[in-house]
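User: Teach me something about this protein's shape.
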Amino acid sequence: MTAFRSRALFVRLLAGSVLAIAAPAVAQTTNNAPGAAAARTEAPKARPWMNTALGADARVDLLLKEMTLDEKLQLTFGYFATNADWLKTPVKNWVYPKDGLAASAGIVPGIPRLGIPSQWQTDAGVGVASQRGPTPRLRTSLPSGIATASTWNPELAQAGGAMIGNEAFLSGFNVQLAGGMNLTREPRNGRNFEYGGEDPLLAGVITGHEIKGIQSQHVVSTMKHYAFNGQETNRNNIDHKIGEQAARQSDLLAFEIANEVGQPGSVMCSYNRVNGHYACENDWLLNKVLKRNWGFKGYVMSDWGATHSTSEAANAGLDQQSGWAFDRSAYFADALREAVNNGHVTEARATDMARRVLWGMFSVGAFDKVVAGDRATTIDYAAHAEVTRADAEEGIVLLKNTAGLLPIAKTAKSILLIGAHADVGVLSGGGSSQVYSHNAPANGLIVADEFPSGFPGPKTYHASSPMKALQARTGATVTYLDGKDVKAAAPAARKADIVVVFGEQWTGESFDVPDLNLPAGQNALIDAVAGANRKTVVVLETGGPVVMPWLGKVGAVLEAWYPGTAGGEAIARVLTGEVNPSGHLPATFPASLAQTPRPVLEGDPKLDRDSHPMGNYDIEGAAVGYKWFDKTGAKPLFPFGYGLSYTNFAMGGLTAAPQGKGIKAGFSVKNTGAVQGKVVAQVYVSGAGWEAPKRLGAFRKVDLAPGSEQAVSVTIDPRLLATFDVASGGWKIAGGDYKVMLATSAADVVQTVTVRVGAQTLDRGGK
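Assistant: First, the predicted structure itself:
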């Protein structure tokens, strides 16, 4: 897809896809909810808070004046809207809200007399997900979060967010549990596929733009999982230790940037503990950092099952208990009303909790453009397929291409595809974020009986066949083998002009992978096939980094991640050269786990939820990913920022000078090859006394025709020149010389200049 076409789709999504419709009936309160209806039933004669000329703050003020305490508390308590009877006990029981949407994440009942709509919640960051049940809703899926981060293209991220936000709205939802932000500290993390990679600037910018896109559709987006939810093993109880300076310069900086870019209406606190306190009752994380330092005006919702108390959580900054069926008690139902009555939680704090929920809804227009149930028949799936395909194409990373094996030669007569069900579809990640393809059978499954059948499964493939897409684009005979018989694969490979082996690694919520190998004997399969035919291409569909013991034997490698509901077409277009690959890695690929901060994963999956395992993030501190490799001198398999192209680029002419409290850098990029292509120019900066030798300071993706050249200027955020001073609670830039480096990856610096910067003190917002 051309840049013009992609931009046109983006504008189309933002220009009126959402309709103004009448307010729907609201969900009933249940036996566990605050008893708002009994307190006041008359509707006010006027609703001045519905004046759209007013800002969100003023509208919230007007509405709060009309609300009773019980009505305010009603906004702080959420239900799981899907059948969860297996969680019921004699002392933990509930009635399902009548207006909860089937197979959805949850509902917070609204207040009809005041025109406050319910909060209908859906997972997650790649599209409208479905929870349990034989007939899931079928929708469009974006590529995985790590794939979108591989585009290094904020505009694409925002267009993708707008697309899934539109589908959420037309599916009856006004809250989308998207915006995954956790840095890739642990390459085995089962949810790395949902997130934005290892660097705070890249992750913050890309995820922030996705949030911005979602909220353009009058849907509240979350930012999650706040914070340091870096692994799934013992995720409910592990206690991650990290110093404040390291925290502020790594994961928290990513959240801070995303908050500034996307301005999310909500933040979801995570399951784990941080420095001794659960994230959802962590005063430092929620009150001090998020609300006071960053000025966050929205509400903090818990993850499903992450609330552990009433007064402690409310006073620490939690504003809404979500999906309470997963918690041990209805902490924010009658118990919160009692806590306010007895003074353990002040009425002012209860009002603040409601204020924040209302602000999040007003800020995205959820009062003005109210959802009206499931109108999925009006979704423009064809247009949305183009959005997700463009994302997948720019996220595919060309890691190796010996002797120009790719794109596939037009003279090829026979192409053999092996493995990963490439005849019918492409893999997706598992768990609560699972989207089922709109073009799949009613049960959402194009491959039946894949293990596991229960959560976080079933292992699901999107109905986008690489084989069919290749057959439509080449004159070659394209055949498929499942790859289960290695002995049969090698002879078949010898007969083909070119072989494409699809290597897969399924990851998902609630578990971490045991190592970085492709599972189920796939490394042996690739080794055997490459030994039989040197023209072997490997296409990886993985949730994160993997090792490649066969790398020296294959001709080309593409990392396609989980490429979404148009992923098969995207892969085929890249393989044939219809699209020039332009993805760059958002995470380092280690050569082995021995190179990482934790060769052995911390925690123990056999521990119960009352245990207290420790996780030591002070090992690497803020030196996450490429910074750790720079610091230790270890050589990774592939460095952060790496990505090849079918053309060649030249970069140079680097200049840099102080501008305000930051640095402005300029340089030129030229396409010296024969085909149009895109490249990510990366600017790193190096200062004394940092956590690692260098940091990513800025980046720009440039699209160039053959022979064309472009002048580029970027600005380095002052925080990326600074260290966080814990004593003063702010950022400080040390005076002195800083190296500014133009690069194509963290390991490939093209040019370096030195800039003298004066000492600076930044405000709490890093400005």
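Now, about its shape. The chain has three domains: 3-30+52-377, 396-576, 647-761. The longest helix spans residues 154-170. If you'd like, I can walk through any region in more detail.
User: That's plenty for now, thanks!
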